[in-house]
Amino acid sequence: MHRLLPAAGGALAILLAAGAAQAQSAGWNLVRPQHCFEYASSSNGQIVSTLIVYTQTYTFQVADDVMKGAILQWCYNGSAFYGYNAGPNVWSMFWTVPGLR
Predict the structure, then answer these.
(1) What residues contact 57, with CB distance under 8 A and at least 6 apart?
(2) Left (φ > 0), alpha (ψ -120 to 50) or beta: where does 70 sit?
(3) CA geometry: angle at 28 spanning 9 and 7, to 5°?
């Protein structure tokens, strides 16, 4: 089981206890995946794999292999997890909590 934990875990716990937005917003978001799709493309002989996460209100992509590995299990079984939106379509951290629905 993969878990990616940011260094500021205590500060994150305070932010998450306050609640999460229902739509994509800057900062931490509670992600409840509806569907996930992984595809690979090739350019100049290099293969790049991308995971697309669909929620009820927004969609985002994850191309980093470590980040994909951290959320893939949760994404495919429909479990919720937290994601940090650092800007337009830039998801830089994920926080997985076993049993979170």
Answers:
(1) 22, 23, 24
(2) alpha
(3) 25
74 in any annotated domain? yes
In order of 28, 60, 80, the CA distances from 21 in angstroms are: 8, 15, 13
Alpha-carbon gap, residue 74 to 21, rounded angstroms: 19
Give every CB contact of residue 78 below 8 A, 6+ residues apart in sequence: 32, 33, 34
The answer to whether position 21 is within a domain reads no
Counted domains in the chain: 1
H-helix or E-strand spanning residue 56: none
pLDDT per residue rounded down to tens, the chain (101 residues) = 444 444 434 434 433 444 444 567 889 999 999 999 999 988 888 888 999 999 999 999 998 889 998 898 888 888 999 999 998 778 889 998 877 87
Q: Is residue 19 part of a domain?
A: no
**What range does the domain containing 69 cover?**
28-95
82 falls within a domain: yes
